[in-house]
Amino acid sequence: MADRLYSVPENYHIKPSDIDTSRPFMGVFGKMGPEFLGNIIVQMCQYMGFWDAFTREQLEVCCAQGGANMAFLDWFIAHNLIVCDVNGRFCVTEEFVKKCYQVVPKKG
């Protein structure tokens, strides 16, 4: 599994369902491309039900369906918002989740 110092802990208090993905993210990451991909990643985790690791292939399918650009995955990695585990699976970090939740929490 991913290094737990960086990835979201299993019992993290902010769940994917706590983030509003009904509209494009605006102001979460400061760039349109990462915000669009970030929204897709949160939607993927909402579908899984928790902050689970995902493969490049899983993300490619979601990007193809949602129209996001996979190239921004490297941007997230460079900014320590997504980490890669020893098996080549990707995990969001607490910082990723906090940024999303601070800007687009689900209301009600």
- Strand arrangement in the largest pleated sheet: 1-2
Q: Quote the beta fraction.
A: 5-15%
The unreliable regions are 1-5
- Structural shape: globular
Secondary structure: number of strands: 2
The portion of residues assigned to helices is 40-55%
Description of the molecule:
With 108 residues, the protein is mostly helical. A hairpin with a 5-residue loop joins strand 1 (82-84) and strand 2. It has helices spanning 32-48, 56-66, 73-78, 94-103; strands at residues 82-84, 90-92. Helix 1 (32-48) crosses helix 2. It has a two-stranded antiparallel ribbon with strand order 1-2.
Question: Which key phrases capture this entry?
Answer:
108 residues; mainly alpha; two-stranded antiparallel sheet; 4 helices
Q: How is the topology of this model organized?
A:
Blueprint: H1 32-48, H2 56-66, H3 73-78, E1 82-84, E2 90-92, H4 94-103
Antiparallel strand pairs: 1-2
Summarize the structure in short:
By secondary structure, this protein is mainly alpha-helical. It contains four helices and two strands. It has helices at about 30-50, 55-65, 75-80, 95-105, and strands at about 80-85, 90.
